[in-house]
């Protein structure tokens, strides 16, 4: 088979990035946007020694698992990868991905993996959206989403993963920019004013936050924008954030509130959070609650335990567990997040949680070796790259009864579980939770106990 050849392939599997996989004469083809069970016509784009990439041209026989995607941009947009796959199958796909990683990378061959905890409604689940503002070729100001693996903006204000209110807010912002001739940021030249619009909605409280990220100190005629936005039911905080750096990082350090409060309030379970434009906060609060409830049940707390929550962010897991533990210590690398964690403890009247700024792999060994700290339960929730070996060594030495590992990447999870299992721990439960429907991402929560 050569480049540009057109041929038919039956999709028999799906890869980690959601791409369809099929074989023709023993040669493997990866086909983006094809789902398991499809028979498709494709065009060879890149041919390697043992495999190739082909572009989907036509679906000859749709898979029984194929559904009509709600979003017309589902193929171009970098946000969703598997919207064309029935949601039940998406969950099975994720379960398999976790199983394969645990087997292949961790060498765990006969673990029972619980069925993925799915969403009741896999749409409109995100409480946060950051829309880039750009000018298109014809000079129109547009907003939308980045196309896959690029910074080209697809004009679209209606994303089915976000809150319905986003559309109304974006229309107001675009209208305002047009009316007062306010420029959009240009990534190539670093010129132009408005870079992004950040919208957050408290799903429990329905409080709304709008923050315009600008490449300058002031937003001309901002009062006019405020006048329109404040009429929206639930509007609680309107602000600008200043980011004059030439960078892909969305937010700068300075926030100026234009109207209302500096923050919105939301709840996960019965814990209340104050969220400012710069705060980290879980984007799917409904599934986060299920995740934390699982963490709580895996931790099996009776009220007497000392718990360490490593990579604690704004202390969400710490505060959830503190209600059932003797005391909880959280460790997080971002100082601002620790400030938020302390404030969140305070507004909830939680007095048995303390927080430390630093690298988990430095703070924990230090507290253990120098201060004689111990733990009955250790929770880790690292970023995608997983835990540092120094940290895993210290955990093994501290010898807690239980370790609860919350992971957003089952590949590094598998590696770290192997490390702990070679040092006296045993995997007792594996529970995947779907926090990001229509994408290939999957959270997993694992309970480990001493042999
Ligand atoms: N447990 C939190 C956040 C988890 S996200 C929650 O459920 O909301 C992972 C967190 O780890 C991020 O907040 C990140 O800033 C932090 N982090 C990254 N590397 C770290 C390190 N080496 N030590 C401590 N925290 C780290």
Automatic annotation (TrEMBL):
Q: Which residues form the active site?
A: 408, 408 (nucleophile)
Instruction: Give the EC number(s) under which this enzyme is classified.
Output: 2.1.1.190
Q: Name one GO biological process term.
A: rRNA base methylation
Q: Return one GO MF term.
A: rRNA (uridine-C5-)-methyltransferase activity
Looking up Gene3D superfamilies in the UniProt record yields: 2.40.50.1070, Nucleic acid-binding proteins, Vaccinia Virus protein VP39
Residues forming the TRAM domain are 1-58
Q: Does the keyword Methyltransferase apply?
A: yes
Is the keyword Zinc in the record?
no
What PROSITE patterns does the annotation carry? SAM_MT_RNA_M5U (PS51687), TRAM (PS50926), TRMA_1 (PS01230)
Where does the chain cross the membrane?
none
To which protein family does this belong? Answer: Belongs to the class I-like SAM-binding methyltransferase superfamily. RNA M5U methyltransferase family.
Which protein, by its recorded name, is this?
23S rRNA (Uracil(1939)-C(5))-methyltransferase RlmD
